[in-house]
# Entry
Amino acid sequence: MSVRKIITIGDEILSKKSHPVTNFDKRLHSLIDDMVETMQKYEGAGLAAVQVGILRRVVVIDVGEGLIELINPEIISTKGSQYGAEGCLSVPGKHGDVERPMEVTFKAYDRNGNEYTKTVSGLFARCVCHECDHLDGKLYVELADNIVDNE
Ligand code: ZN
# Structure
């Protein structure tokens, strides 16, 4: 495993759409392992593969409710809304307020190609939306009402 370099805002790859994963192989597993290590090293709550320069629909999330891997995730339904601060490892030193659903149900595959469905809420739901946006080339700064420096 190794920590990968995080790509930051200004690099055009962050605005590109990621491609679906078709091979659930060793190469995918080592990408996921590296993404987890990178997320932990930089103390992020989530990381999308594009943030380490790989245009594949792979996301890892850990908001303190256990580590989860989302391959080819799709949001199926949402409920309610929440408004609050969001940050991104690709936009270092800043945060901004974004409106997101309060609850999100999504389906995704695990690293072995098994499909699963999960419903999450609060910060977890916010993070799923944020990371799925990355897979479509969107950054939270495009949705935020304000972008301010971290204290
Ligand atoms: Zn992000």
User: Anything to note?
Assistant: The chain has a mean pLDDT of 97. Strands lie at 46-48, 58-61, 68-79, 82-86, 94-100, 103-109, 115-121, 148-149. The helical segments are 26-41, 123-135. The first strand starts at residue 46 and ends at 48.
